[in-house]
Structure formats: structure tokens, C-alpha cells
Amino acid sequence: MRRTIVITGASDGIGAAAARRLHRDGHRVVVVGRDARKTEAVARELGTDHHVADYTRLDDVRRLAAELDSAHERIDVLANNAGGVFGDPARTADGFERTFQVNHLAPFLLTRLLLDKLLASRASVIQTTTLHGGMVRTLDLDDLNHDRGLNAVRAYNAAKLENVLFTKELHRRYHDQGLSAAAFYPGNVATNFGSETTSRLMRFLATNPLSRAVLLTTPDNGARELVRLATGAPGVDWRSGEYYAGGAPGKRLNKLALDAGLARGLWDRSEALLDGTGTVTR
């Protein structure tokens, strides 16, 4: 079946690699990226639609949701693949810590604004994330902005935990209405993902040629699980509400990711933060 698949963060890296593979398989791929020139280049290569949005601006996310809703009769897969790690104490124009906003709050908002269309399409929502056991010991729902001390690596790991919690709560709330959700770990991939961070470790892994060659896999390899989830049938090829690593449900999942109360609390807190800007009304 030919599907309409929206991929954010598709101007480069895993997103672009997945877009190319899905296009070759005959699906209608919609490319979303931050960099207008790179996003347009990928879309032109594939002969497909594209949209530009900067996740550090929630107005861009609102506009993106309106454009997607208007341009596409149905959305079969929403792949929330865009992300980044920063560590700069400067806030976004919306007042949020950038790693939190780009990795969690912006895709949360996009998904919520598209929810009617996703439900009508019986869609799958896929989150690109990473999460290893023990890397996050607590998640303070009253300090998602890291006002009590910002550490680039800790903020990034917290955002990745939030991706999994969002996936599980999305499944809990809407799977019985036909929506499916999954999160996946693509491996350590050689992309430009960490190039803007103030963390020396993250920047070294992202930009040093030796570390990229020895420690990291290719974007094409990293895209395999995204492609598998986007093209597979929920309930047959994969289970909704799960976190996948290496093609199978993750066995090293942080115990916090299994806390249903924390997942509900994150959802409610995220809505409250967005309600404060007059964004989410559903």
C-alpha cells in the first residue's frame, strides 16, 4: 500500500536517508527540514513535497501543522525525527530551553495539532530517540527547562526519555481509536546532529573524523528501523507503544520510561506549558 509519510529532520542524516529509501519503495514522502536550501534539494531530488520549519520557534510548528493539514488529504505516518543537542543557556523565543523544545515540545505540539488527521488516517507516529538504562535517574516535571542547572548531555538524555514517555502515553490515549505509536533507537549515527552543542564530548563525537569513522554508523544504516516501522503493519510487524532497538523491543529500557504516571504527568505538563502560550486547545 502506498502511504503518505511525513518525515521531520529530513534535510540530512537519518531523515534524508529514510526519505530516499521510502521514495524508492513507492511511498509518497513529505520532506520537512529546518534549512530551506537543503530541504528543497532533497525534495527536488525525490520530486516530492517539502515544508520548512525551525523547531526553536513554535510559530513555525503551528504553521507547519496548518500547511500539512491543508496540503495532504491523509497522513499515514508522522515520523518525528528532527532533533538536536545544544547546552547553551539561552532560551528560545518561546522561553524554553532549546534541547527540550526541539526534541520534545515541538514534536509534541505538531502531533497534537495534527491529531484529528492522524486519527482519521489510522496513522502511525514514530519517534527517533536514544535511551540507555540508567542514563537518566530522575525527570523533574517542574523543571523541564533545566532552570536549576543546565548540562548539555543531561538535557539531551532527559529529552530522549521524554520521547519514549510521549510515545507510550500517545499509545495509551489513542491506540483504541486506531492510532499507533513507536519509538526507536537508530544507533550512533554519523550526522551533523551534535554540531551546535556546547558539550565537548557531543561535539567531538559529531565532528571528529576519527570518532565518526570508528564509533558511528552511517545514516543509511540508522534509517533502517525508521523505514521498517513506517512500512510495517502495527500489530503484525511491530507493537504499538514499544521502544525498539536493533529491530526488537528494547531490553535496556530505563525504568522511568515504564512509569505510566510519569508519562501522564509529562503529557499534562507539556500541555500546560503550551496552554500558557495559547497554543493547544484540544
Describe the protein.
The chain contains 11 helices and 8 strands. With 282 residues, the chain is of the alpha/beta class. It has one domain (4-188, 218-275): NAD(P)-binding Rossmann-like Domain (Rossmann fold), CATH 3.40.50.720. Helix 1 links the parallel strand 1 (4-7) and strand 2. Helix 1 (13-24) crosses helix 10 (224-231) and helix 6 packs across helix 11 (260-275). The longest helix is centred in the middle third of the chain and has 23 residues, at 152-174. The radius of gyration is 17 Å and the shape is globular. Keywords: Oxidoreductase. GO terms for molecular function: oxidoreductase activity. This is Short-chain dehydrogenase.
Strand and helix layout:
Elements: E1 4-7, H1 13-24, E2 28-33, H2 36-46, E3 50-52, H3 58-71, E4 77-80, H4 98-113, H5 115-120, E5 124-128, H6 152-174, E6 180-185, H7 200-207, H8 209-215, H9 219-222, H10 224-231, E7 242-245, E8 248-249, H11 260-275
Helix pairs in contact: 1-10, 3-4, 4-6, 6-11, 7-8
Concise summary:
The protein is an alpha/beta fold and 282 residues long.
Give me some keywords for this one:
alpha/beta, Rossmann fold, 8 strands, 12% strand, disordered C terminus
User: What's the total helix number?
Assistant: 11
**Considering DSSP H and I runs of 4 or more, what fraction of the residues is helical?**
40-55%
| CA gyration radius, whole angstroms | 17 Å
Q: Which CATH class?
A: Alpha Beta
Total strands: the figure is: 8
In CATH terms, the superfamily is NAD(P)-binding Rossmann-like Domain
Classify the secondary structure makeup into a structural class.
alpha/beta
Proper CATH architecture: 3-Layer(aba) Sandwich
